[in-house]
Amino acid sequence: RSWMQAAEQLAKTVKGLKQMTFLEGIYPQVAAIRQISTDEFSKDFLGMGASYYRSMKARSLEPSTAVLVTLMERLGEQAIVMRSGKPQTLLLRVADRYEKLGEEVGQEIARRALMQAQHSKWVRETLYRIVNNINSERERERGAGIWSAPPIIIC
């Protein structure tokens, strides 16, 4: 009988444990830098509606790669703002924290892209060819005095 009770307790514990989503790991770090509600985080950092983060968290869903790209951009923008103006140690540290979070988001985007690229050699090779063609075209434009940032693959 004690074995059955222990098994039931273990099942309840395992059922109660929930895998944290990527955003659930990022939001507290952003909130530690800047006091921000989940609604503000959803709108200002994710570019979504006010309830987006709460809804995703409640359903244990991961954000799309497009949402992560928006998040990475917003973190980068915050870092740039903190570095603009007269350099102050506190602001530079905050900028570093935003950049670190942006890199963490970038690693998640890259991880997803690599996972998808592993599924099909043809897709991976085609994407490489397309990016190389775009880069070649941009090099020609750069030589003509026209410049734009290189493309990034987001699968």
Percent range for β-strand residues: under 5%
Distance between the termini: 52 Å
* Helix residue percentage: over 70%
Assembly classification? single chain
Shape: flat
Return the structural class: mainly alpha
Please count the helical segments: 7
Query: Taking all residues together, what is the mean pLDDT?
Result: 84
Unreliable stretches (pLDDT < 50, length at least 5) are none
The profile of the biggest β sheet is: none
Helix and strand element order: HHHHHHH
Could you explain the architecture of this structure?
The chain has 155 residues and is an all-alpha fold. Helices cover 73% and strands 0% of the residues. The protein contains 7 helices and no strands. Helix 2 runs antiparallel to helix 6 and helix 5 (65-83) packs antiparallel against helix 6. It starts with a helix and ends in a 12-residue tail after the last helix.
